[in-house]
Amino acid sequence: MSRLNVPAPEDVPAGAQQILGNVGAQLGFVPNMFKTLASNPAVLEVVTTLQGTLSRVLDGRTRHSIALAVSQANGCGYCLAMHTHVATEFGGMSDDDIKLARVGSSVDPKRAAAARFAQRVVESRGQVSDTDLAEVRGAGYTDAQILAIVAVAVQFLLTNFINNVNQTDLDIPAVDSVDTTVPQ
Predict the structure, then answer these.
(1) 27-41 pLDDT, tens digit each
(2) Which pTM was predicted?
(3) Using an 8 Å Cβ cutoff, are 117 and 70 in contact?
(4) Which residues, 6 or more positions from 144, have their beta carbon under 8 angstroms from its beta carbon?
(5) For all residues of the chain together, what is the average pLDDT?
(6) CA-to-CA distance for 61 and 108, rounded, in angstroms?
(7) Which terminal residue of the chain, N or C, has fewer Cβ atoms less than 10 Å from its own Cβ?
(8) How far apart are CA 14 and CA 55, in angstroms?
(9) 3-state secondary structure the chain
(10) Contact between 163 and 67 (Cβ < 8 Å)
(11) Which conformational region is residue 133 in: left (phi greater than 0), alpha (psi within -120 to 50 degrees), or beta?
(12) CA distance 16 to 43
């Protein structure tokens, strides 16, 4: 059961109602995370603005792979379920690629490098090694793109932390656990 209160629809401020309407139009429903965030319209606006802005910095499948890798690293069941749903329904990712993304890999070597690097950013609290940087650069990422990977990882850290604190009720099917051993 969620630990933070979700405001009743009639108690959501007008600006937050508009944001929730936009989220609902985009996804086909308003996820519980956003309903909870409506209790603080400024935080709701920050999260949705950040998501909108960062949706332009890397291609969709790379962002989905990062979302899954970061959410797995943080043990956020709500985010894993939501990002699996979004990656499948809107990102066209296969079940195999979703499972690989969760362990910091991908069917695409370049995307695998981004997911792996994002997990290293999370696991090391940003204290990545020179080897980590060399690997992501070796996959073809520029410094500007590496900054984008870090920013996208932080975006998902924010929502992972919110949902882990809240223990947000799932409003879509849960996902199964995966073996977190990265395939070689």
Answers:
(1) 999 999 999 999 999
(2) 0.93
(3) no
(4) none
(5) 94
(6) 10
(7) C
(8) 25
(9) CCCCCCCCHHHCCHHHHHHHHHHHHHHCCCCHHHHHHCCCHHHHHHHHHHHHHHCCCCCHHHHHHHHHHHHHHCCCHHHHHHHHHHHHHCCCCCHHHHHHHHCCCCCCHHHHHHHHHHHHHHHCCCCCCHHHHHHHHHCCCCHHHHHHHHHHHHHHHHHHHHHHHHCCCCCCCCCCCCCCCCCC
(10) no
(11) alpha
(12) 10
Identity of the amino acid at 37: L
**CB-based contact 53:101 (threshold 8 Å):** no
User: What distance in Å separates the CA atoms of residue 14 and residue 56, rounded to the nearest whole number?
Assistant: 27
Q: What is d(CA 28, CA 88) in angstroms, rounded to the nearest whole number?
A: 14
pLDDT (average), residues 110-130? 97
